[in-house]
């Protein structure tokens, strides 16, 4: 593998809402932090999309026709200056890989010192292992790496690395975040790069530490992956995060005393509104968390409704296809059993009349 090898990441899954766009964001900002050229391509068809988070690095691509396919794949082949990242929608999953296979794209990419890597986000959905096995069988010129983003992700068998490459790690692990941090990074104004470079100040200490540890763990995995595939110089470090703030050791309150310092006996007879007001700063924070929780519940309910509607639409389409088949069959039977005999009988009557 030459020093000029550049990575091509294909982030994909046949399932929706499994974290494809989040992984594409992290990969893009990982390269931006290292001051390396990177270009992202958005094949998603539902929001929020990659371009909503990183418009300055993202191009919306269409592969529904030959012109769109030529525009995307020609640019990927020609661009060998930096990493390319493709966020493949679950709806364009099959079409994308059908085109890739038909034009021998991965083979041509490797001839041009571009290392293709399929980052397949696995899921408990039965479609996931089937699609993974299909990619493993069809694309031997690309590294195929499972990515686990959920605790309930299904098991995927590891395959052999393609000829001429070192074996990549068995999987990438994207740990789960708590609800409040997930709500934070899902905001379109949030940047992992800005968070990584910033002096810790905006978040409470424990949450800041949790998110920084989470980002650092993922960036280290990206780094190891690039080194394994020969797509990075070992002498180039990851951008170091700012120093952590000093933590104050937690000291539990004495028995019978609230953490605010007010004895429990006094608090018991305090006005109802004042009993929990040990720290007024906690009140708006609790309200925000409650609002985020409600928003998350509404989002999950909306996603459930969308899933149900998509299922109903699919069933309706299947019924329409079956109904059309039945109509054709009924028309054929009417033609053979009623129209033709009636026509023959009418012809006989006419002959007798003559």
User: Which class best fits the helix and strand makeup?
Assistant: alpha/beta
Question: How do the SSEs run, as a string of H and E?
Answer: EHEHEHEHHEHEEHHHHH
CATH class bucket of the domain at 6-229: Alpha Beta
Q: Roughly how much helix do the residues carry, as a percent range?
A: 40-55%
Uncertain segments are 157-167, 246-284
- Continuous helix count: 11
Large-scale geometry: elongated
Mean residue pLDDT: 78
- What strand line-up does the widest sheet have? 3-2-4-1-5-6-7
Give the tally of β-strands: 7
For the sheet with most strands, the description reads: 7 strands, parallel
- The share of residues in extended strands comes to 5-15%
List the helices and strands and how they pair.
Elements: E1 6-12, H1 20-33, E2 38-43, H2 50-53, E3 58-60, H3 66-78, E4 83-88, H4 93-103, H5 105-111, E5 114-121, H6 127-138, E6 143-148, E7 172-173, H7 179-185, H8 192-197, H9 205-229, H10 264-268, H11 282-353
């Amino acid at each position: 593998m030459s020093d000029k090898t550049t990575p091509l990441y294909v982030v994909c899954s046949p399932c929706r809402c499994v974290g494809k766009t989040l992984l594409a964001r992290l990969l893009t900002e990982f390269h931006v932090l290292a001051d390396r050229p990177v270009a992202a391509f958005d094949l998603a068809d539902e929001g929020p999309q990659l371009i909503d988070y990183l418009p300055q690095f993202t191009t919306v691509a269409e592969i529904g026709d030959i012109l769109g396919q030529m525009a995307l794949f020609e640019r990927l082949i020609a661009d060998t200056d930096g990493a390319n990242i493709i966020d493949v929608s679950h709806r364009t999953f099959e079409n994308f890989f059908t085109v890739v296979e038909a034009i021998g794209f991965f083979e041509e990419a490797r001839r041009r010192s571009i290392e293709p890597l399929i980052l397949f986000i696995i899921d408990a959905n039965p479609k996931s292992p089937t699609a993974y096995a299909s990619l493993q069988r069809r694309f031997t010129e690309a590294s195929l790496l499972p990515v686990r983003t959920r605790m309930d992700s299904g098991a995927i068998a590891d395959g052999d690395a393609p000829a001429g490459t070192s074996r990549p790690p068995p999987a990438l692990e994207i740990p789960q975040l708590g609800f409040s941090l997930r709500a934070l990074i899902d905001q379109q104004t949030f940047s992992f790069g800005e968070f990584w470079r910033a002096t810790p100040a905006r978040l409470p200490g424990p949450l800041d530490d949790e998110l920084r540890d989470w980002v650092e763990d993922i960036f280290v995995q990206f780094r190891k992956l690039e080194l394994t595939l020969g797509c990075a110089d070992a002498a180039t470090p990851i951008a170091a995060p700012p120093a952590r703030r000093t933590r104050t050791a937690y000291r539990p309150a004495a028995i019978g005393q609230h953490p605010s310092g007010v004895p429990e006996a006094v608090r018991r007879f305090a006005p109802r509104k004042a009993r929990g007001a040990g720290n007024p700063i906690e009140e708006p924070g609790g309200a925000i968390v409650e609002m985020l929780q409600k928003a998350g519940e509404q989002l999950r309910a909306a996603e459930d409704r969308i899933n149900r509607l998509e299922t109903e639409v699919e069933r309706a389409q299947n019924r329409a296809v079956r109904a059309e088949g039945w109509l054709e069959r009924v028309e054929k039977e009417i033609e053979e059993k009623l129209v033709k005999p009636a026509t023959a009988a009418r012809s006989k009557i006419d002959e007798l009349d003559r």
